[in-house]
Structures are given as structure tokens and as C-alpha cells.
Amino acid sequence: MRRSGAAVLALAATGLAVSCGGVPAPAGTHDAHHDGHHAGHEAGAAAGLPRRAGEVRGPAAGSSAFPTVTFAGDGRLWAAWVEGGQVWASSSAGRGASWAPAVAVSPADEEIDANGEARPKIAVGPGGEAYVSYTRKGTRPYTGEVRFARSLDGGAGFSAPLTVNAPPDDSGHRFDTLAVGPDGTITMVWIDKRDRDIETAAGRPYVGAALYAAVSTDRGATFSTNRALLDHACECCRIAAAGLGDGRVALLWRHVFGAKTRDHALVVLAPDGAPGPLRRATFDGWELDGCPHHGPSLAAGPDGTLHLAWFTGAGAGGKGIFYGRSADGGETVSSPTRLAASASAGHPAVLATASGVWVAWLEPAAAGSTVRAIRSRDGGRSFGPPVELATSAGAGDHPFLLADRGRAVLAWFTEREGLVLLDLEGSGRG
Hints:
The chain has one helix at about 195-200; strands at about 10, 65-70, 75-85, 85-90, 105, 110-115, 120-125, 130-135, 145-150, 160-165, 175-180, 185-190, 210-215, 225-235, 240-245, 250-255, 260-270, 280, 295-300, 305-310, 320-325, 335-340, 345-355, 355-365, 370-375, 385-390, 400-405, 405-415, 420-425.
């Protein structure tokens, strides 16, 4: 893999993730068609064989799929992924150079529903607790349950998973996101179809699905009663969440405005999960009868400014990756800035640190895939030119931008190289 002059800090064998852009995803992962604009450059599900339980450490190319990674406050890297039909978790004190023995989080008899937009999630609490969420596939197409497990012993073991959506039913509860506040409060939000099922059964129209939330204040031992946040979220796009540092959580998601306009909305949740007013965040006017399987990204800067990155397939500014910022807690969002010159760019990630704002995205290469990024040194008011961070001759997963003790890091899983961690600070990029 060509790395464009930037230093790779860790290169470990890791797994791949399917996103929907033209690559067939496992059955049951879509609600509707999408535009397929990324055919051929996104990583598919692992084609190899799963390892024996005693051999599983970190996620591995050819065996694992749909990984998520995050850094804890002490610099330890954590990962959750799917392998052999189960969700696994592990951690690395050496940025992926070596991994602790992995733990199977989900029971062997559970069928996992995962894709690029709805992969297992992992987050770390202020006391070193590790939290994993995932979706157990339901009995009908496009249905499932949001599951949650925790480790209070540094990842040596995980609790038996509990179901967060309640009461039990056979509706769709999927595409969850997981956020942990500074006091340890866990906020879970997901796309929920229980209300749509009720309305449809009664012969009443219902566009999209609902967002629901639940909160835990006891390190994940129990969760609050499910709270309906709003109606008409896009059915199968990831939800972006950003903690605001005071216990509140900002959410950004693709929303259905009117009959089929699929732009984005923003809401801020109180520490108990109560939603503030829904505010429209983007005005591209992308009209689509089905879900594009292409969710946004959201980050909160040290000064509280919210930074938004998203893809649209149509709009006054054209097709591509856009950025906006909100300095008033989401009440207003700046006019959009188009960041990617390529109309085939997609699946952006945004990160804000004390040294600047980064946005990264995936693009097709002549033979393979490329991650490009752009940096702002003035809080998102202006950006430098896009730069190529890494290129692989094989398929590549969505890029992720992570903060490791305040420093910006790109995490990218590729078909050939596995996990690439690229330290962006001082790399000369952007």
C-alpha cells in the first residue's frame, strides 16, 4: 500500500467491513435501494475462515468483518468486530502491533446483523470499562434487537448481553450508536420501527422510522425505559453522536423531510436522554425513494463547536462530501462547504482537536481505493487543499478519525494490509 509519505504507526492484520456502495451486503442489511456510487472500491465481508477461539486476538484480515476501533484515555486501542458469526472484542497496548486474547461478546447461537453502516460499536468509560453494542438479527427481514455487554475487568471477560430495546417485539431495532459521558453515563440511540409497524398495520402512512434512546447510569447494568425521540429518520443510515463534555450528546442523522427528501437533522439530548428541538442541519434537497445507506459524521471541538460532514447525491452544490459547523449548539449550521472535488467520494469522518479540524473520506483509485483528507487550522472556517493519506490496491473500509490523547489518528482497514493507523499530527499532511 502506498502511504503518501506519512508514517504508519501500526500495521496489523485486521478485518474488513462491507458498506453498501455497490458491494453486496449480507442479506437483511438494507431496507431499500441505494445509489451504488462506490462499486468496486469498498471492502467486502471476510472471505476466509474464522480462527479457532484460542487463536483470536485482534481482528484479522480474511477472518474478521465490520470492525470498530477506539482509543481509551490511556492510549490503549480497543476493537470490536464480527468473526465466525460472533461479536468479539480485544485491546492493544501497542497500537495494534500485538493484541490481548479476544473475548467472544455474543453467544454462539445468536445470529448477528452487521454491515458497514451498522457494525458493532465499542466505547470505553472513564474508569476503564469497555462497552460493546451490536444487533442480533430478528426473525423477519430488516428486524433485530439492540444488544449490549460490558467488561469491568479490562476486557478479560464480558457480561452476558442484555437487550436494550424494550418491551420485546419482532420489529426493527438497529443501527445503534453508543456514547459515554464524562461521568460514565451511557447513552444508546438507534433506529426503531415499532411505531411504523403500528401505523402501517392501521393503514396509516409512515415515512422512514423513529429514533429511540435509552440511558444507563450504573455502568451498563441496567438501562432506562426506552424513550421515543422523533419520527421519520432515514431507515438504514448510521447515526452520528458527539459528547458535548457536560453530559449532553449531540446527534446527527439522515432524516426524511416531506415525502422523500433525505437531508440531515440535528438534536441535542440532555444527560437523561430527553431531546431538545429537532433542527434541520442540511438543505441539499436530495430526493430519493430509498435509503442511500450513507450516514453522516459529527464531532465536537474543544470549544464546543459542532463539526458536521456528510455525503449528498444531489443538491445546489453538486454531489459529494460537504462540511458545516455550528457554534451555537446546533441551533444554526453554517453554509455548506464542498470538500471533495470527486463526485465519487463518500463515507466521510470528521474530527476536531486543539490543533484543527480534519475530514477524511474514501475514493476509488485506478485499481483499489484511496483515503483523502483535508484540514482546517481555524476551526472549520477555511480548509487547505485535500491530500492523499493512503492508497491500497485492494478494497478499503470506511475511514475513521480518532483522537489518541488529543492527537488526530486515521484508522483504515483494507483488504490487503489490514489495519492502518496513521498519526496525522506532525505528518506534514494538510
